Amino acid sequence: MRVVIAGAGAVGRSVARELLENGHEVLLIDKSPEAVAVVRVPEAEWLLADACEITTLDEAALERCQVVIAASGDDKVNLVVSLLAKTEYGVPRVVARVNHPNNEWLFNDSWGVDVAVSTPRLMSALVEEAVSVGDLVRLMRFSQGDANLMELTLPEGASLVGTRVGEVAWPQDTALVTIIRGSRVLIPDPDDALAAGDELLFVAAGAREPELRTLLSPRPER
Fold first, then answer.
1. Single residue among 119, 140, 163 that ends a domain in this structure
2. Where is the RCK C-terminal domain (predicted)?
């Protein structure tokens, strides 16, 4: 897979190394000579240029890319790169970094963003996930289809404990994608019974979140 990363700072370089280790082809773009440090990621291709310019993206051959990652520290740059990648080059998957939470509402399909990754939101969500049992935590928003990745650790006394996955009337536009049970990662099977302490990962439409919270809530005390 060919991936172009706009922004060769610490975030962009870290993502590039991970992708290269997984066998992908990576091109890093940055207009700052200080950022274009080839020795830091020698296996990647490098381009010293402004990723907001069409001529740069032509040189990067975005039409041959499967993924573009807008990873700069400037939200305006990331939005422009995302929009150009999607509208001018038809890149199938555009991932954009959100630096300031107040700008998160802009990072949607109107700007060509398929997945918006907000570091502050993700960090706070991971903190919530670590300390919250029984609370539905939103980990990530997928712009296309207005879907969210959400997590909940099933508490003792939850109404679904002991219920088989296939017997649960999940809300519409909701998919249970993974059950993490101790050190095991389970692909949900209709015959699997949910257990207290299970970490459940869902992809669900934002509008279904209240229904999902209600479904997963503990049994009312008598």
1. 119
2. 137-218
